[in-house]
Amino acid sequence: MLEFNLYENFNPNLNLPWKQKVPKTRGTIMNYELWQTGYKFTSTGVLSVTANVGDVVEILINSDYSYATVDYKSEKVNLSLLFVVIDIDDSNKATLKNYFWAMVDGVDVPTSILSQSSLNILKLILNQKTTALVTDGIIVNESELSKVFPYNRKSETDSAENILKDMFRFLKKQPITIFKNNKIQTLLVSQSWNRAEIKTRIDEKQNIAIENEVITDRSNYNFLNAYVKKDDGTYPTSPISYTISDTNVLINMDNYSGDGTDLPDRRLIKTGFFDKQPTDEEIKFQISKDTTVANLYFNQNYLLPLYTNDLVNVYYQGLSYRGYISDRCFVESDNGVTNERLLFVQGVS
C-alpha cells in the first residue's frame, strides 16, 4: 500500500496563487499500477476513501527523487505522483490520468505556432488562462528546446496533446509534474542538466518485454506525382515526380542521374495537387515508410538505477537500442511490496 493526499480539483478559477492547497482527506491506495509520466498508459488503483471524478490525487512514493535545476546543480524531493481521477467504480477502483495530460485536455491551438521553437510552443500551451488545471511554470534546459521541428500539419488547428506528444518524441523527454511549496511545476529535465548517454545491459532476470510501436502511420506510397498550381490558377499538364532512395533521401526525378539500384523496386504512386510548392519535409511525409520504434519494458536494476528522461544505450541479446527512459511504473506485488518497472523508448530523429 501507498499513502495519498486527496484534493478538490485544482481549478484555475478558484486556486489563486496565494491560496494554500490543503488536502480534504488522506488515504491509502492498493492493487495499483502507477505510471510517472503517462507516456502510453493511464494508472489505476483501489482507493481507501471515496473520491470524485475531477479530484486530484497526490500519491506518496517511499523514495527520493533528484532532478537538475541548472548546470551542476540539482534538487532532491520526496517522490510523489500527481493524478486526476477520471473514473471510479463501485469498488472504489479509480482510473487516474497524469496531471500534465489532464491539464492540457481539451486545449486546441492554431498550427501557425508550430514554426516557433519548442520552448515558445510549450509556453503558449501551458498558459493558465487556457489550461484545465493550475500550472505554475516549467523547469527546462532552454537550450535543449531551442529547435524548430517539422510537425507536418495540414489543418489550421490541432489538439495540444497531439502537438506535445510529437514534440516530446523529438526531444526524447516526457513531462513530470511535481507539487512542492504549494506550486505545481512541470519538469522536462533528468538527473543532469546536460544529458549524457548512459550505457547499460539488461538480461532476462529483469523480466523484459519488447513491443514494436508505429509512431508515425503513413500510407504505403513511395512515389509522388506533384502538381503545383501556376500563377494563373491552373495546374500544369505534367507533374514533378519525387521518390525516396534506400537511404531515405528525397529525390526529384527530373534531376536524377543514377542507375536506379538505389530506388524502390516497385513504384507505388500517389498523386497530389498543391496550391504552392510543398517543402521537402511535406513531400517526404507523403511517401515515407511508417516510423516504427521498439519499446522495452524491464525491471529496475537498483545497482544501476535509471530514471525518467535519462538518455540510454541499452544492450540486449546482442542488439543495441538507443533512446530514453520515457516512464517509470510502480506496481504493488502480491506481498504488498512496490516493484518498479521502466519503459524505454527507442529514439527517432
TrEMBL record:
Domain Phage tail base-plate attachment protein N0: 100-182
Domain of life: Bacteria
Span of domain Phage tail base-plate attachment protein C-terminal insertion: 215-277
InterPro entries attached to this UniProt entry: Caud_bapl16_1st, Caud_bapl16_2nd, Caud_bapl16_3rd, Caud_bapl16_4th, Gp16_dom1_2, Gp16_domD4
Domain Phage tail base-plate attachment protein N-terminal barrel: 1-97
Pfam family, one: Caud_bapl16_4th
Coiled-coil residue spans: none
Domain (Phage tail base-plate attachment protein C-terminal barrel) ranges: 198-346
Protein name from the UniProt record: Uncharacterized protein
Protein source organism: Lactococcus hircilactis
